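Annex B.
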Amino acid sequence: MAASTGGELRRRLGGPAGDAPHRPQEPRAPPAPSLRPGSFWLTRLVLLRATAFIYLVAFLVAYHQNKALIGDRGLLPCKLYLENVKRHFKGRINMETLSYAPTLIWFLDWSSMDSILDAFALIGLAISAFVLVTGCANMILMAAVWMIYLSLINVGQIW
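Lipase maturation factor 1-like: predicted structure tokens.
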């Protein structure tokens, strides 16, 4: 490598050369963020928002149809279904019961099933709308949406 004179080096770096008049350097704009390979930011954004959109539609449908289908006065009331499952497992709610019909409704009061179903649908709707609009999601939010939806579909029975 050939040695450079001080003037050449300063000229290449943008500084004043030895005999050139000194001029103040202009402030440089910060470099634009580069898209590094392997960051997958676009894939994450699309996948999370698409999943949130699907959940949003599912919870919106559940909110409008749950009372008529599985509510207190629905076609196949989920309260009756859960009582039959509980009776099958000798009146106990244990791991076998939870694995047969995994739902959070086991741990709630069943006196007003319509309000429980509406609350689950609205909570899921709110979480999925938040993820869809902001694009912010973490494991807790996505697990909560999954558990709420799982709770609703497992009391829906077979149509």
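The helical segments are 6-13, 41-70, 78-88, 95-100, 113-134, 139-154. The two ends are 80 Å apart (CA to CA). Further annotation is deferred to the next reporting cycle.
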